[in-house]
Amino acid sequence: MNDSSRQVIYELARTQSMSGWWLWALLVLSLVILLIAAVRLYRRDAAELSRPVRWTLITLRLTAIVALVFFFLDAQRRTQRSITRPSEVVVLVDTSQSMSLPAYEDMGSGSRAELAAAIIKDSEMLDKLSAEHRVSVYAFGENAEPRLLQTSGGEFGAADEKQSTDLAAFSPIAMLGMVLLGITAILSVSSLMIGASGNADRIGWMLFATAGCLIVGCVMTGSVYSIRTQYSLAELIGLPNSETSSSEQSDSQQSDSQQSDSQSKDTQTTDPVTDGDGNPPPIKVSDWNESIAATDAQSRIGDAIRGVLVDHDPTTLAGIILMSDGQSNGGSEPGAAVATARRNEVAVFPVGLGSSAAPTNLRVVNINAPQRVYPSDKFAINAVLQASGAEKMEVEVQLLDGLDQSASDGGGDAMPTQVVDSQKITVTGDGTLKGVRFELEPQSVGRRRLAVRVVAPEQDRNEADDIRDARYEVVARRLRVLTIAGGPTREYRFVRNLLYRDKSVELDTWLQTGQPGMSQDADKVLSEFPKTAEELFEYDAIAMFDPDWTAINQDGLELLDRWVGEQAGGLIIVGGPVYHPRWLKLRTDARVPIIKGFFPVNFPSRGPLIGTGRQGGENAWPLKFTPEARRAEFLWLVDRPDESFQIWNEFSGVYDYVGVSSTKPGTKVYAYFSDPTTAISDSLPVYLASQFYGAGRVFFQGSGEMWRLRRTSDAHFDSYYTKLIRWVCEGRLLRDSNRGRLLVENQRAMIGDTITVRAVLSDDQFEPLVVPEVQAKLLAPSGRIEDVRLLPVAGEPRPGTYGGRFLVREAGSYELRLTLGDALNEEVLRQTVQVSLPTVELERPRRNDDELKQYASTTGGVFLPIDDPSGPDSVASELVERIRPQPQTTVLPGTADQDFAQRRNLALMWLIASVLTMEWVTRRLHRLA
Fold first, then answer.
1. Is 687 helix (H, G, I), strand (E, B) or coil?
2. How confident is the model over 672-696, as a mean pLDDT?
3. Residue ranges of E strands in 646-733
4. What is the spatial distance between Cα 837 and Cα 295, in angstroms, rounded to a whole number?
5. Where are the beta strands (DSSP E) in 141-229?
6. Which of 637, 769, 865, 885 is most buried, by the most CB atoms less than 10 A from its CB?
7. Tell me, what DSSP letter sits at residue 676?
8. What pLDDT, on the 0 to 100 scale, is given for residue 778?
């Protein structure tokens, strides 16, 4: 907050323009000559008069001359405002995922992010800095701009020191001046009466007293009248002024009304992020561990410092406190930002978090395993190891497998103990990541748990990270899939053949243009859409390829709506050029709202926009994937996501798409059609997207051209559709109870991701559950249990649908549990999320002292490393001592007061006219020329 004060300044404006000495000499000489001439004139002219009369005439004439000189010098009043901008200190806290590593050389210590939170909330650093500075705390990571978390301090007294306008209107000085003017009138009348009686000796002294009272009374009254411009003359001498009061009261009421209206409008339109001085209002953080959690995939130190220098005035910025491990791996180079800080004389004070030495430690960084597998279906487990300390180590890596004990006993975190495979590998101690691959062929059905464990050497500093686990489920039953196609397109035929060959899939198909008796590679060929719930609800997934929606009656569409929303069915809709535009042109058909509801996107439905899209394109365009796509496992064409998207980059692309006007709330977009000429309002056409639909999922694909993936490899096309079908129907495959479905948007995530949860629940009578909220339990890899609130989803037409989200802060297997029913009839719904660390944040785990020292030495700051638990307090004290305040004061001169000038001129005219009038009357009474 800016500290401002006002000071009233009186000055002679004419003197500001008289810069030459000769002007001053001429003015003084002229004034002296004028005064001497006036005195000599009256001494000669009134030589025969008595001394009091001569003094009276000379005083009156000199007063008039002095008043004219005062008028010439142009006295003005202005209000000068001094604004003091407080000193500022900025605290930058690194929230990259490397901040989740240990804070000290002792690998069992807390994380660097927890140490930063402790320094901020437990030490008195912020409180002491706030006493002399305005303190702003920012978090920075993978974003180009730092994120403001908290502001405090900088309040140096009143924001605006107002003038004393609330003083009483009555002025004793003005009242005394009016009394003197009244005495002047009495003396004037008395002088005339005495003069008429012929007593000339007494009249001289009375005239002198009259002149004195006149001059002093005019000066006193005129001065107060000119200075206190907010009051009338009647109010200054204590007289009621009903007309003025009534007028001012009316104006005040009107002003208050206008001000109220203005404040009302300002309340609606003013940007809430700034106060009246343009500063952000105070912000407080309730949970520092939550606000600065190590969640970002990059550390952009250069961008963070640059952003602070742009948003804050360097003249008042006393210092930047940088709390980081110094490992910048994204954005602009920190050197350029540090050089800018040096030019602006802003010191950077790096607080080094983490260990500068590489302790001997071997850890399992990540484990990658499928969520669901089938009996005798061999699958791969990939683990990533990292070693630090010794140059090379040969270690044994074990694969453990067993039943998930937590699924049966309702708690606990028991790891599997049975070793089913092992390998000997060599790892280097420079932090390089090493991959290990196992294969496992499950035999028994049910929920299971596997783990990868490294047999670490004796000098290993942390046993807790030697093992990493993951949960999976062996599903015995075959998937029931129904394919529906408007015509025998290539996409439909390739997918049908793929599913028919898959032993884990039972395939039914309905080719809408097929003739009765036509042969199809399917377990069952349908000639119409299933008519009953018993028939439709047997399917786990339905894949529709440019379907003719008009061939499905309203009862069938309502059944399909129930199947997706209540039975957690998985629906895949592939757009096409033949039948898709037809249903969009239907105007009054009651089936259209139901059909539109299935899609995660909106389509143009009026005018020429109804035909947007492309059919028969001449060039293929690759898909432009979103960040969300990298978290979607069904888009992983091979085991590793980076290799998968390398394949997608080599894919030549697709030619066509169906037009989309916008996405629905909650939709996740995975890819766009990349041709820039097809963009509408700078938005490319959506090609791949999904949404939750009640308990189920709906996936939309813009055209039936994924068969072109076969040009890279048949296996890539097979992997895409196999994983996609299993992903959309996972809600049915993992049903724990007939009373509800529990779904998570992503079952694989990175540290810092926010996981969206959806639950569709019913009561013990199988009616939709209607309660204000539902509590789920989240079991973290460390064994910590957190509550996750699930609230009714706004805008959801189906009651009993609840949603929520949670943030993952550590690597490993998370399990979400939702308990329904009482102790006698308890049912538990479960979902798992496998969380891993991005490798870019683990390649350089040690603290970068060289860079942090360079930041400090370049800008004139001090590098303050924290190497032991006693360090935070001493670092906080040293920061408070070294960062000195540097507030800046700006003086605003203001403009001349026009009311004062008007009243000043009026008072001078009053004085000059009065003294000249008295002089003229006196001369006439004494018969002077």
1. strand
2. 89
3. 657-658, 662-663, 668-673, 686-693, 696-701
4. 9
5. 147-153
6. 637
7. G
8. 92
**pLDDT on residue 161:** 40
Q: What is the pLDDT of residue 838?
A: 60
Q: Rounded to an integer, what distance in angstroms lies between the CA atom of residue 426 and that of residue 290?
A: 38
Q: Is 96 helix (H, G, I), strand (E, B) or coil?
A: strand
From the list 716, 683, 689, the residue with the least C-alpha distance to 702 is 689
Beta bridge partners of residue 892, listed in sequence order: 81
Distance, CA of 776 to CA of 796 (rounded, Å)? 20
Q: Name the most confidently modeled range: 198-207, 455-464, 713-722.
A: 713-722
Beta carbons of 591 and 557 less than 8 angstroms apart: yes
Q: Please give the span between the terminal C-alpha atoms of the chain, in angstroms, as a whole number.
A: 69
Residue with tokens 């930041």: 855
Asked if 497 and 720 touch (Cβ cutoff 8 Å), the reply is no
Distance CA 242, CA 594 (A): 74
Confidence of residue 196 (pLDDT cuts 50, 70, 90): low
Query: What value does the mean pLDDT take over residues 659-670?
Result: 90
pLDDT tens sequence across 567-606: 889 999 999 999 988 888 887 888 999 999 999 999 886 5
What's the mean pLDDT when you consider all of the chain?
A: 81
657-680 as b/e: b if 16+ CB within 10 A: bbbbbebeebbbbbbbbbbeebee
| Residues 6+ away with beta carbon under 8 Å from 869 | 104, 109
Distance CA 263, CA 706 (A): 59
Residue 80 pLDDT: 75
Residues 815, 798: Cα–Cα separation, whole Å = 26
Q: Which residues contact 220 (CB under 8 A, 6 or more apart)?
A: 173, 174, 176, 177, 180
Distance CA 114, CA 99 (A): 9
Q: Does the pLDDT value for residue 245 go beyond 70? A: no
Strand partners, 322: 92, 350
In this structure, is the dihedral angle defined by the CA atoms of residues 162, 167, 172 and 174, taken in order, positive or negative?
A: positive
Spacing of C-alpha 822 from chain mean position:
42
In angstroms, the Cα distances linking 896 to 5, 472, 475, 900, 901 are 18, 81, 87, 8, 8
Structure tokens at 781: 């890899």
High-pLDDT (> 70) share of the chain, %: 86
Q: Which helix (H) or strand (E) holds 659?
A: none
Of 18-27, 70-79, 626-635, 855-864, which range is least confident? Answer: 18-27
783 versus 158: which is more confidently predicted?
783
List Cα–Cα distances, 849 to 93, 326, 327, in angstroms. 17, 7, 9
Highest averaged pLDDT of the listed ranges 221-235, 346-360, 456-470, 852-866: 852-866
Phi, psi of 604 (to 5 degrees): -65, 135
Judge residue 96's burial from the number of C-beta atoms within 10 Å of its C-beta, 0-12 exposed, 13-18 middle, 19 or more buried.
Answer: buried
- Sheet with strand 740-744: strands edge to edge: 740-744, 754-761, 801-807, 785-792, 774-779, 812-820, 827-836, 748-750
Angle among Cα 737, 742, 748 to the nearest 5 degrees reads 130
Distance, in Å, from the CA atom of 921 to the CA atom of 929, rounded to the nearest integer, reads 12
Residue 202 in this model has a pLDDT that exceeds 90: no
257 has pLDDT over 60? no
What phi and psi, each to the nearest 5 degrees, are found at residue 705?
-130, 15
Sheet architecture: strand order including 505-511? 524-525, 505-511, 479-485, 541-545, 570-574, 696-701, 686-693, 668-673, 623-625
Nearest to 331 by CA among 351, 350, 309, 307: 307
Helix 714-728 and helix 490-501, axial crossing angle in degrees, nearest 10: 80
